[in-house]
Each structure stands twice: as C-alpha cells, then as structure tokens.
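Input sequence (156 aa), recorded before submission:
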Amino acid sequence: MSLALAPVAASRRPGLLAVSVALNVFLVALIAAHLLRPALAPLPRAEGPIGRIVDALPRTEAIRMHAVLDRAQPERQAARDRVSAARREVASAIARTPYDEDGIRRALGAWQASWHDFTTDFNAVLIEALRGLSDDGRARFAAAALAEDARHRRAE
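Predicted structure, token format:
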C-alpha cells in the first residue's frame, strides 16, 4: 500500500481541515481582490487647486467630476496654452527696446482676453460637473475651495 493513499490519522484530520479552510479563504480573497482591483484603484489625480478640491469629494462623486473634467481636458489645455502664449508675449513686449507702451498695452489686452476665454469655458465645464454632485458633495466642494483659497493666500 502506498503512503500517499494511506488513511490520515484521525488526530491529524482537524489540523488539515483548518489549513484547507484557511487556504480556501485566502484564495477567495485573492480572487476577489483581483476582480475588484479597478474599483479600488486610486482616483486619477487632477493637478493643482482643482485636483485638491476634487480630492475632498466622496469617491463616487470625485469619479463623476473627474469624468466631466477629463472630457473637457483637450479644450482646456488648448485654452491654457493660449494664456501661456499671451503671458510670454507680455514679457516679450516689456523687454523690448525701445520701450513700447502701446505694445505692452496690446499684449496685456491679449493676455486678459485669453484669460477671459479660458475662465469662461472652464466655468461652463465646472457648472456641468457641479450639477452631478449631491448636496453634501457641493458643500464639500465649497469648503475645499475656501480651504484652497486660504492655502493660496498663505503662500503669497
């Protein structure tokens, strides 16, 4: 008779049962973790003040808000690039020799217009994102926005 087929002593059966149950529980937990991993993945983090504000929201609302913000990202980035280009033109106009006050005024006007366009477009996206928040989510967003403003003022 082979040792592998030999009956296990009665005294060892409870220990083997406990090990078997523990191993099965571990394997079920491992499989569950694998299946739930996308739901447990960290939120995409927006950078800057808006990212910090959105991070204060409940997880499900932050995910919805990120979805709205992400959809508008290409347009928002293009508008940001226009603001940056206008800001560089202001610096260039200030540095020109000879001093050209009218050129500086034009550059400042173009920078102001690009900033206005950026904020107008962003405001529409923000309103759309806020529409999807609960009362608690909007309250948390407002509190986080005030905290972000205070953080910015301390840094100045």
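Checked by second reader. Helices lie at 13-40, 48-55, 59-71, 73-95, 101-131, 135-155.
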